Amino acid sequence: MSGTIWSVDEHLDDILAAVKPLEPIELLLPDAQGCVLVEDVVVQVSLPPFDNSSMDGYAVRISDVEGASEEFPAVLTVIGDVAAGDGGLPDGRSVGPGEAARIMTGAPLPAGAEAVVPVEWTDGGTGGGPADTMRAHSDAPEGASGEVRVHRPVKPRAHVRAKGSDVRPGDLALRAGSVVGPPQIGLLAAIGRSTVRVRPRPRVVVLSTGSELAQPGEELTGGRIYDSNSFALTAAARDAGAIAYRVPAVADDAETLRATIEDQLIRADILVTTGGVSVGAYDVVKEALSSVRGRGAGGGVDFRKLAMQPGKPQGFGSVGPDHTPLLALPGNPVSSYVSFELFVRPAILALRGLEDVHRPSVRATLHSDGPLSSPSGKRQFLRGTYDAEAGTVTPVGGPGSHLIAALAQADALIVLPEDVTSAEPGTETEVILLR
Predict the structure, then answer these.
(1) Is the sign of the CA dihedral 225, 230, 231, 236 positive or negative?
(2) pLDDT score at 294
(3) Do 308 and 8 meet the contact criterion of CB atoms below 8 Å apart?
(4) For 224-277, what is each residue's pLDDT tens digit?
(5) Which has the closest alpha carbon to 394: 412, 408, 420?
(6) What is the rounded distance in angstroms from the CA atom of residue 210 to the CA atom of residue 229?
(7) Which pLDDT score is estimated for 53?
(8) For residue 297, what pLDDT is reported?
(9) Which of 38, 52, 102, 336 has a CA that sits 20 to 30 A from residue 140's CA?
(10) Which residues in the chain land under pLDDT 50?
């Protein structure tokens, strides 16, 4: 199909049909961050597991503080402390009539108590005016006894977190398909889960090709440029939720590139190359991959021309004994990044097991100094900045596929369909949001 012109949608559909979600594994919570759950998580214990205080203060009976005020405080006998981690009052005591217990945030409500009075509503046991705080038990153990003056009444269950008020046994904590982020890890830990069954984060290997590429920090000599693609695409892969490995630029030598790719297969769930897919005499990715067997009966990678700008030359297939997917992207920085967004990012999200693999898109009004031109029969992707409040999108930079400075300013791609050759200011157009 070398002479066939593929559409953007056909190429993406071919990729997604071949890329399957990674097999699930059981991971410890810290290792599961960024992974996708493959099963519902059901709560086994109540959260909180017992009635506990939401304030530092005094556990009391309602009738003992009814009508209390600063002028006429309720005077209660303090019978002990209940700290977070305690099982209750010492010796299993209960709060009886005319009694109170000092209680700390998170501590279990002792038997007999019906509410918690914040310490700021009391004299803190000092015999003076309203207290700002409690003295530490280590500094003033006598604070666990004596008397406390309560200046305000409370309602039943005031400042008490009820057992199971967050979740109860049998509740659905997290659904299959959820991404495990920091809040989800916190919930899993809170309900006692130490491991979880997930699809692992895909391992993505990114490598640039080209003898002209130097590493940032090196001195440029005649005809050389810095390798930006491998850095940008590695960062983009991590942004998509992958574990990404960047390989230093490989020179324009087919055998070296072939050996490098084969060496990287051991740590790759997907391989991404950039450069060497056009029709030049030194575009060696095609040459190198022509004998690396993989996908389909013929194996290797298919190289295609797409009806898009930038990013016309593309390659896709699989390599190695495990048929590892490989996407070969063009070498111009903008072409490379746009191709990643359109094709590699969805493939990574598919490997993760996510159902929605597309960036969000909106309709926006074109805000530009003049009409935007687009080649007939090609879907063009222009860099832009999107103003959500105004509902407008403004082009950034020109159409050149080497203008990486404009790409750094953009937060969206303006999409001009294949049948559009000119878009006037004020035209409504599709916008793919990149952030």
Answers:
(1) positive
(2) 46
(3) yes
(4) 888 899 999 999 999 999 999 999 888 888 889 889 999 999 999 999 999 877
(5) 412
(6) 11
(7) 96
(8) 43
(9) 52
(10) 1, 294-298, 401
User: Could you give the CA distance from residue 433 to residue 285 in angstroms, rounded to a whole number?
Assistant: 31
Q: What is the pLDDT of residue 296?
A: 45
pTM: 0.86
Q: Which residues pair with 413 in a beta bridge?
A: 383, 432
Compute the distance between CA of residue 56 and CA of residue 78 in angstroms, rounded to an integer: 14
